[in-house]
Design brief:
single chain; 242 residues; alpha/beta; Uracil-DNA Glycosylase, subunit E; six-stranded mixed beta sheet; 8 helices; 6 strands
Length: 242
């Protein structure tokens, strides 16, 4: 088995078996036990959720955390909830996914040139992991960034994902992080040193596809597509400042 494939398998296993955050583990197990009425006949995953996608990805999409009745139920981040419906529909429109909907790990979804992960690998109460919990989860993102050797751009889906990438950059090379500290915003762009073996990588901020954003019109499909297109252009070196 190729070494990189073995590394991906080891990372996946390490995430799934992680017990670093007792509060989050207890919450995920309780949600999986009680369940939501609509999913009462389903077996919930109830464990930390690894990232997934194309290991040769040029684009990393980093979200906040698995949803309590989404990824914590299905075992795949952004799968089985409204945020994921919005995200995968967009990826399908752009030719980055083979289907527009994902309902479970075995539904045949394939991503092309994209890898999807979350800053926190466990569903947190009220969608708010603590700073300590995010810090304990950060090494998994570091390992993904090391394995994604063809990465050309990262997309931060929301402010917490943006901060997770900034914290990683500060670990790699604080002197290479722009000053003043880049602030999150929709369509914001900065370049961050995310790997010691590579030059600073373009990072694009995009509003998280949560229902709070999509149902209020703060984030529309056109806005989301434009953000992803900007990231794809930066990944391929076609955008100004790439």
């Amino acid at each position: 088995m190729p070494r990189t494939e073995d590394s991906w398998r080891k990372l996946h296993a390490d995430v799934v078996s992680c017990t670093r955050c007792p509060r989050l583990r207890a919450y995920c197990r309780e949600v999986a036990r009680v369940k939501r009425r609509a999913f009462a006949d389903q077996d919930y995953w109830g464990k930390p959720v690894p990232g997934f996608g194309d290991p040769e990805a040029r684009l990393l999409l980093l979200g906040l955390a698995p949803a309590a009745h989404g990824g914590n139920r299905t075992g795949r981040v952004f799968t089985g909830d409204r945020s994921g419906d919005f995200l995968f529909a967009a990826l399908h429109r752009l030719g980055l996914a083979n289907q527009p909907l994902s309902v479970g790990r075995g539904d045949g979804l394939e991503l092309r040139g994209v890898y999807v992960a979350a800053a926190a690998r466990c569903a947190p109460p009220d969608n708010l992991p603590s700073r300590d919990e995010l810090d304990r989860c950060a090494p998994y993102l570091t390992r993904e960034l090391q394995l994604l050797s063809r990465l050309g751009c990262a997309v931060a889906l929301g402010a917490i994902a943006w901060e997770a990438l900034l914290r990683r950059a500060m670990e790699v090379d604080p002197a290479a992080v722009p000053r003043p500290r880049p602030r999150f915003g929709h369509a914001a762009v900065c370049r961050l040193p995310l790997s010691p073996e590579a030059p600073p990588l373009p990072v694009v901020g995009v509003y998280h596809p949560s229902q709070q954003n999509t149902q209020t019109g703060k984030l529309t499909p056109a806005m989301f597509d434009a953000g992803l297109k900007k990231a794809l252009a930066l990944a391929s070196g076609r955008a100004p400042g790439a």
